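User: Second chain of the day. Same drill as before.
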Amino acid sequence: MSASPLTPLDYIAAGYWQDFLAGRFVAGGMAYEAELHRCTLDESLASLQRVDTLLSQIRRDMVKSGSWDEAALLIDERYRNFMVFLAFYAGRVLAQQWQYTPHWFGEFELRKRYPTLPLLTDDFYQHMAVVYRDDSEVNNQFNTTESLFFALEPIGMRLFGHIDRPFQAVQGGQVASGLYQAVTARVPNAINNSYTLPLDDAQSADKNVTEVGVTQHSRQDIQTDNIDNSYSHHELQSTPEPVKADTVLAKANLSTASLESPPVQTITAETTSVVSSQAALKEVAVKPTTKFAPTPELFTQLLIELDEIDVAQSAGKTEYEQARKVLDQFEQYIAKQEKPRAQVAFSQQHLAAKQQALARLQDAAHAGNSAAMLRLAMYELLGEGINTDKVAGMEAGVEWVKQAASKNDSRAQRLLSKLYYQGFGVPQDMTNGKYWLEQAAENGHVEAASLVSQWQQAQALISTQKQEQHSLKRYQLLFAVIIVVAILIFIIV
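Assistant: Same format as last time:
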């Protein structure tokens, strides 16, 4: 494809990146700039996982502080610059995977170049997009949008998507709930399938596994992504779409790392000028396939909550901690892999160590430790528990969650609500899902309380609207009666 004239956004994108690398101040300021440097933006796909982790943490912090207000944040130039920078960065990473120079279009250029796009006026998330590959179809079909990426959409979804705030993709379908998933869904097959685990890393990880208690659970290492935060969008709805267990297991997870990251590395500034001509490298047009993160969001979120939410335990503490130290090392290693959990290989020696840890976990669970119940439930639901039969494991996992929920463990109650909402391991039941969500909220679960509050506000709004409509109809009827009476009086008189 012949190079198109550079747009103002092309210059802005390059300026943002160069300023970031040089540590220069961005006009208007940029929120979370220090945290972005700690994410080590090295233009890799893995860096997008770290970015998604940051976005997830920002969302949780805003919910906890009561500042989770999309409209207010979009007014703040610092937050807008933050999201725009991330969009530019994601487009840069994606274009690099295609060996192409990203080319950005604003709303005006988009409407002119792609007149069939259903762009919404003044929608922040739709006001810019990037062409990230040289697609011959674009040359022949003026309105083709296959190589177009609205990078702000998954950022908005990650930060603000919830039951009352659905996001509609400009190009149709569901908006990805993170940059990693959105980008990896668009990379070439050759790149998607080329990942190979280095032998040294595997040996190193094996060594660490055998050393019980060497490291504690680090949420920084659990850098996974969420393709679908379906529980946020489908909970509390009266007419949900059925979700099969196999489908849920295939879905990726929310990033669960904390904001703590390694010190920023020195990155050499690019020598290529922003005004250089675009590369004309030819690529074979292949349909990309989605790369899934190792672990479902249900359980990466559970691991976070087991660390962050303290629930007093009366028994099984020692057994649980012993098991946790071993199992956390397995989770850290699995989280680094860019493939499903079932495809991550371990030696027989290490699998034996895992089974021993699971046995300790089971002892703690039988003693009444709800954290152990939840951790054991996770492995049973994943088909990695003590039960070798998957059906029996699924049933056992659900039962452990129910036992923990009955002990007023808010983490278990929140997880059980998700299972019912999604129909995962249990028949889909919106009533039970809502019940356990409310129980979790009553026991202090912040996310559950936020969702319940949003639902209550929505219900109150609906009720108010119905009352207003009813009152309006009554006034209209009364007014009509008065007119009729007046006419009759006039006729009689």
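The chain has three domains: 8-194, 195-266+298-444, 453-493.

User: Great, on to the next one.
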